């Protein structure tokens, strides 16, 4: 174990924040998963605890392994992974999984180990790395809309098209994050306006086409519409059951909370250990616990920006922002849904909610960030060892 700690590189504060979020997740997940344990594990709640521990353990192993890889290798890996991701998304979509009459093809099962894997989360990370690679490649070149359609927007729209039918919120967040990344990378605003307009037109056409059918896509689109209408009209309907129970949980928590494991609403919230874990945290630990989690994510965002600013290359800067910003953005959306500042989306709370795929892909993204910051540390050590007084003085200042 001591050898492992000695080999840990990169921003130590990011390591600390991630570890703290993981540690703080155990009690809420253990508490919130009690009903799930009774339905799936014959009442053995400890199995849910062990499962969450194993997910986090494997996640940290992924993070440790990835952060040891020089980040320049991710350029080539993204090119290799894009077609692999597209194949996985096609396989996932062709499964035709239906839940409640709606399209729900989000997971594929790995035959050997019997583990379900959500392919859209892997696609998210791979796509952000790919876009960062492309934008860094054309940074000092003249950007033309025609020249960027196939190499940049081709993979983006293909991936989004495969994710959209079963997971609108993930597709929308992915599209927004890509827009932010290409904007920061210097993509012309007039071209961005065309892409955004094209994206909206494609979405409208998809919704219209789905409404003409009578199958799972129609049900899925109708669910999206109902969630938006209920949110905008502030109507109390059966569709708002989850958010109403989440609001009751938050109101019950007050300042200090009802205490660890004493949540009442965890028995009423269907997704209490994942989508609505933030409501359970506030119920059991009060506003103090909720603000603590929020501050940790804001601190993580600050350290991500610092890591990006200190990177020695354009690719490194865009890579850190590309894979780091979605983590914090997803956390903010999850918290906003719990307090009804946003319609229900089904987004988990990174590193805290139960669920292996979410944890693993978050740790993969953080490992990439740490790889970039580790390179900066390596450069600093080399400068100091070379004994360049000007460099040492500038670093000290």
List the helices and strands and how they pair.
Blueprint: H1 2-6, H2 12-32, H3 34-40, H4 45-67, H5 73-94, E1 98-99, E2 102-103, E3 107-110, E4 115-118, H6 119-137, H7 145-163, H8 168-184, H9 189-211, H10 216-233, H11 241-253, H12 277-310, H13 314-338, H14 356-386, H15 389-396
Antiparallel strand pairs: 1-2, 3-4
Describe the structure.
The chain has 397 residues and is mainly α. The chain is 72% helix and 3% strand. It contains 15 helices and four strands. A two-stranded antiparallel ribbon has the order 1-2. A two-stranded antiparallel ribbon has the order 3-4. Strand 3 (107-110) and strand 4 form a beta hairpin. Helix 5 (73-94) crosses helix 7 (145-163), helix 6 runs antiparallel to helix 7 and helix 6 (119-137) runs antiparallel to helix 13 (314-338).
Give me some keywords for this one.
397 residues; globular; two-stranded antiparallel sheet; disordered C terminus; 4 strands; 72% helix
Brief characterization of the structure:
By secondary structure, the protein is mostly helical. Helix content is 72%, strand content 3%.
Distance between the termini: 35 Å
Task: Report the biggest beta sheet as strand number plus sense, adding barrel if it closes.
Answer: 2 strands, antiparallel
Shape: globular
Give Rg in angstroms: 22 Å
Strand line-up of the largest beta sheet: 1-2
Q: Please, what is the average pLDDT?
A: 84
Poorly predicted runs: 392-397
Strand content: under 5%
| Element-by-element helix/strand order | HHHHHEEEEHHHHHHHHHH
